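Problem: given the chain below (428 residues), write out its structure.
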Amino acid sequence: MTIKYLKKATKTSSTDDFKTREIVQGILSDLEKSREKGCIELTKKFDKYEDEIIVSKEKIENIKKKLDQKTKDDIKFSYDRVRKFAEAQLKNYGKDFEIELSKGLFAGQKLIPVNTAGCYIPGGRYAHIASAVMSVTTAKVAGVKNIIACSPPKQNVGAHPAIIYTADLCGADVILNLGGVPAIAAMTYGMFNNSPADILVGPGNQFVAEAKRILYGKVGIDLFAGPTEIAVIADQSADPEIVAFDLVGQAEHGYNSPAWLFTTSKKLANEVIELIPKLIADLPEIPRISSEAAWRDYGEVILCDNNEELVTISDDYAPEHLEVQTTNNEWFHTNLKNYGSLFIGEETTVAYGDKCSGTNHILPTKGAGKYTGGLFVGKFIKTLSFQRMTKESTKEVGAAAARISRYEGMEAHARTGDVRLRKYGYSN
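Solution.
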């Protein structure tokens, strides 16, 4: 097939990205320090506005009284349909559907897997066999047609043999002996005769994470990942040895892996603090060095007065992995809202989820559990909306769309409604 451009753009939507990124990064860095004062100053500078920032209830009520009824009716028309569609999406979450929002106006959604997924499988300090399982298997089940797996090679060996075996077993179509930034670039840009990835998933070191962050937008990513985290919520009933082992179990990931204990028992806290250095000292060299640094620099033990305080502090931290070992585990299960994955009761532990119990170990860190969950089949599936209408429904929808567009100052938008109203014999 021959493709011929009758008109070709001289620029793309990404043309000014780097310049914009530099400007925005500077503004954000300044506002992180100056906070509200900085926001006010910039609003004065760019918007020439010097009045209240928080819109008062009085102002809202005054607007309600002054805004003309036709405008309010058109806005309500839009609101009613958007809300009805959102409710239908919630009811049919994870499913294809179509609904008639009003006479002749049909809308729906269709779930379509991405075409190509890139799965990064760490293999530096440790051979992360389970990461191959978590990423490649989930992509395969989601229906992704083309799965590329990358893992760092060792001299004269290539990627770890068990990682290669696992990636192949789980359904990888191509396996590359590549790690770090080159792996992320190769999957993103479609190197080595592969299609460019539509999404990149999988954990990695800070260089892998930064490469994914920089390329986000050009390619989808699973999460903005940071060092792995664990938090344990425990009361006086918890076994201090088990709590201590679980905290150390995650600290061995790296020098910057946070391990947190939230407890209502001072006795338990002190026992755990005493135990952890002993458990670390008994580890082999590589995990011992990582665990010592992680616990020394990032470990925390927080004493709370009651269960409600435990929930508050835990939800604020939003830990990647959260264990609950108390006499009231189900209460915590009901009330906790922010975490990557929850491990309920002494019988389970993070390592089970990390390796083989079934839940995914690619999870949000650095507080991201406040707005997202971890990797699941839905990360590989696009939820796409569609709509179709009868000519008769244009009378109502087209007129409202045109008027709303003009309220917004978007005349070209308005005329796309006007032209259909005229063609189908209606007036606005």
